[in-house]
Specification:
Length: 164
């Protein structure tokens, strides 16, 4: 299915580098109004410069894992048509050679961070809008333990969200 992005309002959480920035660039080329979020203010400014300052591009620096900051952001914004989240990290190692804390943190960063985005963003979406999350396909349970759990949790979450 091709998504038509012309004049659509798109939010890219983690849009200041990597995959998220590439999504922002392509969406701008498709005629979308794009808002990028990054954690670091300097990265937001640099990304806007790199993407080519445009009336169709805005950005905010905030901690997208912080509930209060996310709530303040969404409350101040008109609704979005599409919200893309790139939140999540990586980790190496298996279940026996990592601490519980390290594995828990990776699941927190991948799954709970995105669940929080889903719970808030779902109230700030236009009709027929979409929520898009990023898991991953690299690694195996024995060498990327917490990341695999986090990715599988994201995949399960979207199955539930699609119905809800
Ligand atoms: N790279 C890979 O090979 C790979 C493979 C599979 C899946 N993935 C997944 O794809 C996603 C993106 O990967 P990437 O390589 O494109 O990452 P990246 O280049 O490191 O970009 C991460 C983006 O997220 C922002 N960000 C991180 N934490 C944030 C927070 N708490 N609040 C607001 N913004 C935050 C960063 O902003 P700042 O720079 O300001 O911190 C940056 O814009 C991740 O979920 C990763 O697990 C990556």
């Amino acid at each position: 299915m091709t998504m038509q992005l012309k004049k659509q309002r798109l939010l890219v959480i983690g849009g200041t580098s990597g995959f998220g920035m590439a999504i922002a660039r392509q969406a701008l080329q498709e005629g979308a109004d794009v808002h990028i979020i990054g954690h670091t203010a300097a990265h937001v400014t640099a990304a806007i410069t790199q993407l080519g300052p445009s009336d169709h591009l805005t950005g905010t620096a905030l901690d997208a894992q912080n509930l209060a900051q996310l709530k303040t952001f969404f409350a101040a914004q008109p609704a979005f048509d599409h919200v893309v989240s790139m939140l999540g990290g990586a980790m190496g190692g298996g279940f026996l050679d990592n601490s519980i804390a390290a594995i828990r943190q990776t699941v927190e960063d991948k799954f709970f961070a995105n669940l929080q985005v889903a719970q808030l963003a779902s109230h700030h979406l236009n009709q027929h809008g979409s929520l898009i999350f990023t898991s991953g396909a690299g690694g195996r349970p024995d060498n990327a333990s917490g990341a695999i759990i986090g990715n599988q949790a994201i995949n399960t979450m979207v199955v539930g969200l699609a119905v809800e």
